[in-house]
Design a protein that fits this description.
The chain contains 9 helices and 11 strands. Helix 2 packs parallel to helix 8 and helix 7 (about 220-230) runs parallel beside helix 8 (about 250-260). A hairpin with a 3-residue loop joins strand 1 and strand 2 (about 15). The longest helix is centred in the middle third of the chain and has 15 residues, at about 160-175. Strands 3, 4, 5, 6, 7, 8, 9, 10 and 11 form a 9-stranded parallel sheet that branches. Strands 1-2 form a two-stranded antiparallel sheet. The radius of gyration is 17 Å and the shape is globular. By secondary structure, the chain is α/β, with parallel strands linked by helices. It has one domain (about 70-275): Glycoside hydrolase/deacetylase (TIM Barrel), CATH 3.20.20.370.
Length: about 280
């Protein structure tokens, strides 16, 4: 299965992707670099061809000896209007999951909404200060970038790039380091218009090839089995870091990580997966 395709071409019959070898432009203010000046610049596919934001979903398998690496990613979801629910006690964070990833020493990428960073600034800063993690953009509002996306409110096309920049701004205000210029569409929903609208943000959109099914799941074993059945060398797994919407993710990770290591897999961040 090929990872990088040209925008508008269906990937696996479901997701559209794009890529290319266009020369990189000067850094965009919307795509912050790593906090340390000496840090290695994270790889990016931006800018994409024909004025579209590039999309990455899996490292291409390189022959019969493909390296057994897998990237676990965690979406920290929170919509712009969920503040009252958080104040009433709903858990949009999951510090227990982050602590588990630290204990298991699993490098991971957290796709964080700006609203989540505003609600949990200390946690956001702590995740971003830990070299085990990298923080990527999951929009500010967690509103959809296309119509008919799991019932989410929709961001206007003219406001899409501003929504992404607003999330980066929220990260800066919270003191988040280790920020990478990657973006995940809420719900994974996008179309050609969204890819064009996000071009000014100078980000690489990141999808996945393995759906964990942890959202609103109550059976950790079923989530673990779905991930273990789906992972292949170079896979990118989508999970969640939102306790109220994904209550069994931590338990599933406790099963997934040792089993994949037993099978010879090494865990990497999206930046390393993309680099390979």
């Amino acid at each position: 299965m090929t990872t990088l395709t040209v925008a508008g071409v269906l990937l696996g019959g479901a997701l559209a992707g794009c890529g290319g070898a266009s020369p990189a432009p000067p850094p965009s203010p919307s795509a912050p670099a790593s906090a340390s000046p000496a840090a290695k610049k994270p790889p990016t596919m931006a800018p994409g061809p024909a004025g579209r934001t590039p999309v990455f979903s899996r490292r291409a398998a390189g022959g019969g000896g493909a390296e057994k690496v897998v990237a676990l990613t965690f979406d920290a979801d929170m919509t712009a209007d969920q503040g009252p629910r958080a104040k009433a006690g709903e858990r949009f964070d999951n510090p227990e999951l982050i602590a588990l990833l630290r204990r298991l020493k699993v490098p991971s990428t957290v796709f964080m909404t700006g609203r989540w960073a505003e609600e949990y600034p200390a946690q956001a800063k702590g995740i971003g200060a830990d070299d085990l993690f990298e923080v990527a953009n999951h929009s500010y509002s967690h509103y959809a970038f296309t119509a008919d996306c799991y019932g989410l409110p929709v961001v206007g096309k003219d406001a899409m790039a501003r929504d992404v920049e607003r999330a980066f701004s929220a990260f800066r205000q919270a003191g988040v380091r280790n920020v990478v210029p990657y973006f995940r569409f809420p719900g994974g929903c996008y179309d050609d218009a969204a890819l064009r609208a996000l071009t000014p943000a100078n980000v690489t959109a990141v999808q996945w090839d393995v759906v964990s099914g942890d959202a609103f799941a109550t059976d950790a074993g079923a989530v673990a089995e779905q991930v273990l059945d789906g992972v292949r060398p170079g896979s990118l797994v989508v999970m969640h870091c939102t306790r109220s919407a994904a209550p069994v993710t931590g338990e599933a990770i406790g099963r997934i990580v040792p089993e994949l290591r037993k099978r010879g897999y090494r865990f990497v961040k999206v930046s390393e997966l993309m680099e390979g």
